Amino acid sequence: MKINRAALSAALSVLLTLCGGGAMAQQSNFQLSPAPIPYPYFEPGRADYKLTGSYFTISADQLSFRGGGLNVIGRKAFSEAAALDGQIGFLAMNGEMPGFALPFLYSGSVWTPVIDGKGKLTGFSLPLSMNLEIQPANGHAGSLIFFGGPNVAISSLLIQTPYHAVAGVTPAAKTLFEARATTGLMGLQGGVQAAVNLGPFKIAPFAVMVAERGTVTFTFHNGYRGTDTLVKDSVVDIEPFTLTSFGADIIFMPWNLSLGTLWQQAAAKKSQDGYKTFLMQLSWHFRSS
């Protein structure tokens, strides 16, 4: 059974980047979405906060994922020109995909897996980041902020597949095959956000670049005791990579709310390799002196 790698890659991308940047970090992609800083401007001695809730779905041939998360960003301004922010988030997802299992050795024989149903995927991500913010302009018409700092993300994906093993004509009892990928990423992010006031709305376009590297640890459990696996647990390095995201935050100032949505449909050369992504985010901005 063929696995739709494009959609699975999209699910991994969402899990690793959604909370961390407040936007799906697709290369050269534009969306209406909250920016990765609390508010488009700051004032000395004031603390700004942003609470963002997210919901997303990813669908494709043989694959279906959905999930949501919560992201909190806080900022303290030290002067008209400088501030420091920090954020923490949590994202969870689940879904179905074609099941898979790996062969193993037992009593000198190779046991072959027979898949009994779809695989169940669950996952979570915990992102952390900090930014130094520099504000060269802030006035009645609008504002401009440059920001940058370190980021860290810890994520885990677990795929459970119902199956049984067979050696020749001898079947084993049904069990679950578990494959887990635990990812640690760290790197730097930087960007710029501008803002223009239009009546009760604040329009705040932004651009963000993220550079990261890390590792993925793969572990496998076949559900049987006393067996020898043919595929060992392993740790794989993630080579350094960069992601660029462009977006715009539209804030309704009387309620201090912003709503972000993204509908994305991607197609490859073969129709079964395409996938659809829907994302909705609602942010509440609030502050204290």
What are the key terms here?
289 residues; disordered N terminus; 10-stranded antiparallel beta barrel; mainly beta; 15 strands; Lipocalin
Structural account:
A 10-stranded antiparallel barrel has the order 2-3-4-7-8-10-11-13-14-15. The protein is elongated, with a radius of gyration of 22 Å. It has a single domain, classed as Lipocalin (Beta Barrel), CATH 2.40.128. It contains 1 helix and 15 strands, in the order αβββββββββββββββ. A hairpin with a 4-residue loop joins strand 3 (63-77) and strand 4. The chain is mainly beta. It starts with a helix and ends with a strand. The chain has one helix at 5-21; strands at residues 29-32, 47-60, 63-77, 82-97, 104-106, 109-115, 119-138, 142-167, 170-171, 175-198, 201-221, 228-229, 234-252, 257-266, 275-288.
- Unreliable parts: 1-8, 17-29, 265-272
The third-level CATH topology is Lipocalin
Mean pLDDT: 83
What are the secondary-structure elements, in order, as H or E?
HEEEEEEEEEEEEEEE
Q: Separation of termini?
A: 58 Å
The CATH architecture can be named as: Beta Barrel
Let me know the number of strands: 15
The proportion of residues forming helix, as a percent range, comes to under 10%
